[in-house]
Amino acid sequence: MSDGYAAMAEAARQAIAYRRAVATAETTPVATYAEMLAAFSAPTPERGGDPQAIIAELAECATPGIRASTGPRFFGWVIGNSHPTGVAADWLTAAWGQNAANLQAAPAAAAIEAVAATWLLDLLGLPAEASVGFVTGATVANFVCLAAARSEVLRRVGWDVEADGLFGAPPIAVLIGEDAHATVYSAIKYLGLGAGRVRMIACDSSGRMLTGDLERAIAERTDPTIVIGQAGQINTGACDPFAEIAPVANGMGAWLHVDGAFGLWAQASPAQKHLTAGVDLADSWATDGHKWLQTPYDCGFAIVRDAEAHRRAMAITASYLPPAEGAERDPSAYVPELSRRARGFATWAMIRQLGREGIAAMVESHSAIALHMAERLVAVPGVALVCPVELNQFMIRFGAADAATLATIRQVQEDAVAFIGSAQWRGHWVMRVSVTSIATTMAEADVTVDAVISAWERVADTQ
Ligand SMILES: Cc1ncc(COP(=O)(O)O)c(C=O)c1O
């Protein structure tokens, strides 16, 4: 019988072997969910087992069902690389078993969050006085930021939502770009703001909020108001014109929240930050670590200019929980959970790994790769770019009908040289390409483009 340490060593061995293989391998097809279910299905274990053997069994069963999202030719959804340095920091995080709830339970975790928070604000060009909550991702970051927004806009009209809830509260007007991400609606639902009662603001053909429509909507409302913009539309990469919309929102006393799950990282690049100009004028920002910062899942940041509103919405107190004192930062005052993973370790490690220069270089390289891929693809007859390439995202259509686009995506996935997915945009199916992994190079992008062209040529022959 081996001990738990042997299991940890086995996990490290298996993980390193996997990452070595995936770094150079083609994007192999993964087993289906049904196959994985069959592989794992067994009666509830009656007795325990050998630690190392359990981990070896886990790796053997799971590996066929591991999507190669850490590989160099993965362009699906918007997924970072789980960089080895971040993974290693995360292993330590798990091994240390820290509960990042408070300063006494986890002094190192609490301190590293405080430091990583200041680094994040600096890199993202956001106000130094803003507070940062380390959450699971942009979905929860949106929820946390909008909870602070709800608290503050109601406080300004004399309503204490934390104490009195929403029953009988003054209504809140929520103005939101019509191409907002689905998870913002989740946050709105969790907060009782009603996904169905928002006022949609019209967007341009790339999904950017139209300032004129926002001006009209904001002039019409009389209720306390939250405006929700976005940096990085999930399909197009487009960012709202913050330098225009922030003064409109600020001038009318509205709270401006920005969903910047990946696009906020344009702020970290001298060459790309013009795309997010004015975003620092907002009141709150949601972004992810597990996308462009390349941390392992899960990692996101809820950033709020008014730290007091942030704490009002989230802080937890109980006699058995030691409070932070003076300038100390209480890690649980900025997140919905009490007990939670110490995400500051991986965040700190990834910022240390890449540095300001490395992050800027990565954002710029991904943007250049996306543009290069799109330019090569649209040179092929029958292939069309849906809107101009913004940041690291673009969409392509094949042939005249949706069926050709879907058939090409299916063919690319079956060929398994690279992984690219689909989405709908303005009522049509598109191939949606996201360049988000630090493993992706220009050479790997070229191999991918060759594979896409080959797939399309075979589909076109059957049309
Ligand atoms: C613009 C935007 N907002 C929110 C989210 C949700 O982020 P997460 O899945 O990290 O919670 C995403 C995810 O891709 C996104 O692109």
TrEMBL record:
Names of the cofactor(s): pyridoxal 5'-phosphate
A Pfam family hit = Pyridoxal_deC
Which keywords does UniProt give here? Decarboxylase, Lyase, Pyridoxal phosphate
Tagged with keyword Lyase: yes
- Entry superkingdom: Bacteria
Family to which the UniProt record says this protein belongs: Belongs to the group II decarboxylase family.
Which PANTHER family does this entry report, sorted A to Z? GROUP II PYRIDOXAL-5-PHOSPHATE DECARBOXYLASE, MIP05841P
Q: What is this protein called?
A: Pyridoxal-dependent decarboxylase
Please give the organism: Sphingomonas oligophenolica
